[in-house]
Amino acid sequence: MARPNGATLCTVRATPGLSAGAISLAAMTSPSSSSDRSDIRLLVYALALIAPPLLAYNRTPSATQLNELLCVFGWGLCLLAAGRTPTTGARRGATTVLAGALGLLCAAVVASWTLGSLPASLALPPMLLLLVACFVAALGARAAQEGDLPDGLPAFAPFAIGMVAVGVLSAVVAVIQVWIPKLADGNLIAQSGLPGRAVGNLRQPNPLASLLVWSVIALVPLVVSPSSFIEQAWAGRIGVQARGPVVRSYTSAANLLAVGVGHLLNDEAEPFLCVETAGEREVEMAALAEAVRAVVNPSATIDRAAPDGRPVDHYVGHGHAYRALMVRYGVTEDSLARQIGDTAEYLRDFAPR
User: Fold this and answer.
1) DSSP three-state, residue 306
2) Position 5 confidence tier, pLDDT thresholds 50, 70, 90
3) Per-domain boundaries in the chain
4) Which stretch of DSSP H or E encloses residue 301?
5) Mean pLDDT: which of 118-127, 268-277, 283-292 is highest?
6) DSSP secondary-structure letter at 23?
7) What whole-number distance in Å separates Cα of residue 274 and Cα of residue 10?
8) Exposed e or buried b per residue across 21-45, where buried means at least 16 C-beta atoms within 10 angstroms of its C-beta
9) Most buried by CB count within 10 Å: which residue of 133, 198, 286, 318?
10) Is 54 exposed, middle or buried (0-12, 13-18, 19+ CB in 10 A)?
11) What is the spatial distance between Cα 258 and Cα 264, in angstroms, rounded to a whole number?
12) What residues pair up with 301 in beta bridges, in sequence order?
């Protein structure tokens, strides 16, 4: 189920190509509180995530060659830190589609190398990086499937911490490049080739923007409890912790993405769009718990913390423009019950087995 409203949908159309951000859902796992292996894993994730984007030192002719090598080295250590094969019952096909897509890219590189004029020096590095990506994706899938088992592989928490850390540090680099450019010496902080514009230590504004977005996404599960009404309903008891009225509105990720793609593909649409989102109705947490119980587990009980008289927490977007775009692009709105059902199906599919 998509996050509560108050969020905005922003799209930018480019010519001749299209560039759009995609919403990603991730299965979250609980961090392990035991063993020195967890500390080692935290260190290697920090190296793999933080060091490559922050390395400013470079050698010609490739400004990012050392960053790429450091990235491969760091993720290799992450794979070594995992240190074992999946437990019995873990599904092996979670990354099949992704591996197939990466395989097609490898085939395209090979074709450009053997049938085209691409030299080996430019063909081999991306092929090896695609192979590394397959292994790292398998590691992520295994972490998602096994994270809640007694002997599981706790990986998401250190990954999220590393992403947030590199986002914060990259933001500091960006501020220096724009506002204090004299401190950018090219060794610790890269000099921007675009005056007045942040490029990060990778010297490219687009990767910097992607990195900052993903660091913000990684922050969410660190500050919000991974436990949800759906998971509580499966356990038989839904607990509403809010001591005052809390009103939210939900729209599905599928609807949001469909509107964004529809706008990007519309040649007559304005080049930049920023609208707030809103679901079909506003819902208070008690009513949301009732809706979840009705869809997921009708026999579950609902408990709510005693009210303390606090005012209404009303955080709902103004969704008139968003809903008009849904009508314009023929997007059928998913009801709240549908969103709950789809989310429960997704969580069940990725739950450890």
Assistant:
1) coil
2) very low
3) 32-222, 230-350
4) strand 301-304
5) 283-292
6) -
7) 4
8) eeeeeebbbebbeeeeebeebbebb
9) 198
10) buried
11) 10
12) 237
